[in-house]
Amino acid sequence: MDDTDRELLRLLSLDSRRSAAELARSLDVSRATVQNRIDRLVANGTIKRFTLELGIHSEQAFIEALVLVSLKPGDSRRIIDHLQRIPEVESLSSANGAYDLILELRVSSLQLLDRILQDIRRMPMIAETNSSIRLNRFS
């Protein structure tokens, strides 16, 4: 990865909807060069996905929750893989301390959140969970 790739990623992180032509102008390279670099960054896993960030009025239609997960001793790769497959899991991170994993969930209702939390708690490798609903995001 070179400086052009890093700048391309920075520009895409600000607005992933920018056209290849617009990105090319900002980077002072050809549109084909931008497209080839994006294709390569997707192929090698640097770019995992392109997402949509909703505005403040749309955000009110969703409930976000943080779930702290403590695992039982053993190989955690299978449980991590399983948790990543849950569509409502926005992010999954490992942590140190009392909890091993931090999940960020985004759901359309409290009933769906309750169902997902129950499903997670039933997983054999899960020792304990602690969840909180996000009330406000300041940044």
Could you walk me through the main structural features you see in this protein, from its secondary elements to its overall organization?
With 139 residues, this protein is of the alpha+beta class. It has six helices and four strands; from the N terminus they run ααααβαββαβ. It has helices at residues 3-14, 20-27, 31-43, 56-59, 77-84, 110-122, and strands at residues 63-71, 89-94, 101-107, 126-133. It has a four-stranded antiparallel sheet, covered by helices on one side. Strand 2 and strand 3 form a beta hairpin. Helix 2 (20-27) crosses helix 3. The protein is elongated and about 50 Å long.
Helix content: 40-55%
Task: Give the number of helices.
Answer: 6
Rg calc: 19 Å
- How much of the sequence lies in strands comes to 15-25%
Low-confidence stretches: none
Structural class: alpha+beta
Shape: elongated
Q: How far is it from the N-terminal to the C-terminal residue, by CA?
A: 29 Å
Quantity of strands, as a count: 4
Summarize the biggest pleated sheet. Answer: 4 strands, antiparallel
Biggest sheet, spatial arrangement of strands: 2-3-1-4
- The whole-number mean of residue pLDDT values reads 89
| H-E string | HHHHEHEEHE
Summarize the structure.
The protein is α+β, with helices and mostly antiparallel strands.
Question: Which features characterize this protein?
Answer:
four-stranded antiparallel sheet; elongated; 139 residues; single chain; alpha+beta; 22% strand; 4 strands
